[in-house]
Amino acid sequence: MKKWNTKYHGIGFKFEPQIVRIRNDEILRFYLTHQKAACQRLARVVRKAYRLKYGTELKISEKSMATEIWFHYRIKRISLMLEGIHWKVFQKSGFRNFLDKVLIHMAVIDCGERKVDNNRWLWDLLAAVLPVPYKSL
């Protein structure tokens, strides 16, 4: 697989036709918690880089991509928080297995066009009804 592009604030992203992958790691967390309108700015930068690479627009709106980035980031942060809680219910193997699967799935944010991303409809819908995340806390 191709090497991660980390030229924008150290955030790792890479492209394939119709897909952008963003590494959901501590560098992304730092960026999202310290920049105004971080999700929108990142979505704008990623879309522009895609356009420069492929000479065509990525068919994902900035708002939809920003919403997907924010939700993946928050789900990972909540999962990490739950993993650190030592209550008996959170120590059960079924719950631990579930958290492990969530954390694996959230490690990379896959933003794909409708043709290749079966949940693009969800991010488009959420982007239409929710305000764009201003800043992750």
Q: Total number of helical segments? A: 6
The shape, in one word, is globular
**Low-confidence spans: pLDDT under 50, at least 5 residues?**
none
Across the major sheet, the strand order is 1-2-3
Cα(first) to Cα(last) distance is: 32 Å
Descriptive report:
The protein is mainly α and 137 residues long. It has a three-stranded antiparallel sheet with strand order 1-2-3. The termini are far apart. It is built from six helices and three strands, in the order E-E-H-H-H-H-H-E-H.
List the helices and strands and how they pair.
Elements: E1 13-16, E2 19-23, H1 26-34, H2 38-54, H3 62-84, H4 88-91, H5 93-106, E3 108-112, H6 120-129
Helix pairs in contact: 2-3, 3-5, 3-6
Throw out a few tags for this protein.
single chain; about 140 residues; mainly alpha; 6 helices; 3 strands
